[in-house]
Specification:
By secondary structure, the protein is mostly helical. 64% of the residues lie in helices and 3% in strands. The protein contains 7 helices and 2 strands; from the N terminus they run ααββααααα. Strands 1-2 form a two-stranded antiparallel ribbon. Helix 3 packs across helix 4 and helix 4 runs antiparallel to helix 5. It is elongated. Pfam families: MerR_1. InterPro entries: DNA-bd_dom_put_sf, MerR-type_HTH_dom, MerR_fam. GO terms for molecular function: DNA binding; DNA-binding transcription factor activity.
Length: 158
């Protein structure tokens, strides 16, 4: 099966499949014309890769556990140990993010409330940037520029 067919069947992009191949996660034979040729086993392999990526594993971890996951005969306790290790890493990330959320919430709680004019200006700003997912939904207080920025402005004479 050609790479485009594998992409259609698995939902992965052609680019992603090429990337997986470059990492050694999947391998393709080459036709006499140089095109990649995949087999039916690669369908399951790509699906497992996508599933592992979706739950937060990196490609290095996937390379470690993929052989055990796609071949039941090779499943060992090392597979479980590696997955437990990844689960612990994800839980640590969640704990770190939770601490960041709590710290930011405390800063917001300590900040002076916005005046009516500031609230209106914030609402206008939010509506202007509503389509941009990276734009913060609210900015409760003015945060000073980072010290390096202030220093560079001073050095430039601003």
């Amino acid at each position: 099966m050609k790479i485009g067919e594998l992409a259609n069947v698995t939902g992965a992009s052609v680019r992603s499949i090429r990337y997986y191949e470059s990492l050694g996660l999947v391998s393709a034979l080459r036709t006499s014309g140089g095109q990649r040729a995949f087999c039916a086993l690669d369908i399951e392999r790509v699906r497992v890769i996508r599933q592992l990526l979706a739950v937060g594993l990196g490609t290095k971890a996937i390379a470690d556990v993929l052989p055990c996951m796609t071949d039941p005969a090779s499943q060992t306790s090392s597979l479980t140990a590696r997955l437990v290790q990844e689960l612990a890493r994800l839980r640590a990330e969640v704990a770190e993010r939770t601490a960041m959320i709590e710290a930011l919430s405390a800063i917001i709680q300590a900040a002076p409330p916005l005046s009516a004019d500031e609230q209106q200006a914030q609402a206008r700003q939010d509506s202007e940037h509503q389509a941009d997912e990276n734009w913060p939904s609210s900015t409760p207080m003015s945060i000073p520029a980072a010290p390096q920025r202030r220093l560079s402005r001073q050095l430039r004479g601003r």
